[in-house]
Design goal:
By secondary structure, this protein is α/β, with parallel strands linked by helices. The protein folds into 2 domains: 156 residues, P-loop containing nucleotide triphosphate hydrolases (Rossmann fold), CATH 3.40.50; 187 residues, Rossmann fold. It has a 7-stranded parallel beta sheet with strand order 3-4-2-5-6-1-7. A 6-stranded parallel beta sheet has the order 8-13-12-9-11-10, sandwiched between helices. It is globular and about 90 Å long. The protein starts with 6 loop residues before the first strand and ends with a helix. The structure holds zinc ion. The site of zinc ion has 9 residues, from helix 13 and helix 14.
Length: 379
């Protein structure tokens, strides 16, 4: 029976996406599964997880034979190279190639052109004749078509599985500051971490990140920082508890112990905000996503610059809705999963807006008590 291909699966981070390819390999029922990861650090992470499960697995290396490996991990760049194509052809001739999986496929929506270009090439050069599975935890319905277009896949022939990607254990909240000193105070107040917890603080610019690092004394990461790989490695190993970073810390951060994510200033896109806050609470424990906003935010014109695209305007408007007087989760759920909700449900950790709304029940009661006490005094 012909297998459905391609498949696009949108699953939450805690749903065990990796099990999709680890499980069949554990049973030993299949041929070779190739998993394309966007980053080298993700490759090593996936490899050690597969090894822990006792799966015969390897990272592709043109110089080492891979004959026994059932799971073969590779980066996109290697996948597109001649050595890998020779390897794939060998597997196809011997009918051993079973699946090709593109993990974190949403990177095609990344604004860094090199990612887009390479993924576009993937669509051009691979005539797979095998099952292709695209996996992601963040794909707003709005961007689904552009992702498939970018990979040269026909939306009508792609089987799409979409699960709810909301994160019930994250408390979304917003705090407003007047001066820089408020920022330092709020951050220090929020970072009440136990020894094993970690936190990420995102800033809009490199200068902000450096200044914050200087004042608060935490490590800092940005794209052209010297030794940035070392800093990231130490954070991923748990040696750094709090890391201040720009949005250049994009992929490969999968630490279950991240308990707090703080954003200083309005994120450029809700898409980035959803992804970055999605790094909190991967162990399903209660976690916090806090957005710190200046009392006087930049105007629409300043934020968008001189030539905004339709996407820029959409993203700006939806961020404005997120920070307005409304349920944060309702905006995120509608944006990420196309759900229509008005407030946080019972089974999730309530956002700041819903918590406040909930607490308002006693306001009329307090008013009544005050009236009664005043009437007592009148006697
Ligand atoms: Zn809410």
């Amino acid at each position: 029976m012909a297998r459905v291909s391609p498949i696009l699966a949108i699953l939450p981070t805690s749903a065990g996406k990796s099990l999709l390819f680890q499980f069949p390999a554990t049973l030993g029922l299949i041929g070779v599964t190739i998993v394309i990861e966007p980053l080298l650090s993700l490759l090593q992470d996936q490899l050690s997880r597969a090894k822990t499960l006792g799966i015969s697995s390897a990272i592709f290396n043109a110089r080492s034979p891979l004959d026994s490996a059932r799971l073969v991990f590779t980066t996109l760049e290697t996948f597109l190279g001649l050595d890998f194509r020779n390897y794939i052809n060998r597997l196809r001739i011997t009918q051993q190639l079973d699946w090709v999986i593109i993990d974190e496929c949403h990177i095609i929506l990344n604004r860094k052109e090199s990612f887009r270009k390479n993924l576009g090439r993937l669509g051009e050069v691979v005539d797979l004749k095998t099952q292709l599975v695209l996996l992601t935890a963040t794909l707003p319905p709005r961007y689904q078509a552009s992702l498939l277009r970018g990979l040269f896949l026909d939306p009508n022939r792609t089987k799409i599985y979409r699960a709810n990607t909301a994160r019930p254990n994250i408390r979304y909240s917003i705090q407003v500051f007047r001066a820089k000193t408020d920022v330092f105070r709020i951050i220090q107040g929020e970072l009440d971490l136990s020894e094993s917890d970690q936190a990420l603080i995102y800033t809009r610019t490199r200068d902000q990140a450096r200044e914050l690092s200087k004042v608060l004394g935490y490590s800092v990461y940005y794209s052209n920082r010297p030794n940035k790989e070392k800093i990231l490695r130490e954070f991923l190993e748990g040696k750094i508890q709090v890391l201040i970073t720009t949005s250049s810390l994009s992929y490969g951060v999968d630490r279950p112990s991240i308990r707090i994510i703080i954003h200083l200033g309005l994120p450029y896109r809700l898409y980035d905000y959803a992804q970055e806050t999605g790094r909190a609470g991967r162990d399903n424990k209660r976690s916090n996503a806090i957005l710190l906003l200046p009392l006087d935010p930049p105007t629409k014109a300043t934020s968008l610059g001189p030539h905004p695209t339709q996407e820029d305007i959409f993203e700006y408007d939806i961020i404005q809705r997120y920070i307005s007087n409304t349920c944060r989760r309702a905006i995120l759920d509608s944006y990420l999963d196309g759900l229509e909700e008005k407030s946080c449900k019972e089974e999730v950790i309530k956002c700041d807006f819903c918590s406040l709304e909930e607490s308002k029940w006693y306001i009329p009661y307090i008013r009544l008590l005050l009236t009664i006490s005043r009437s007592f005094r009148a006697f």
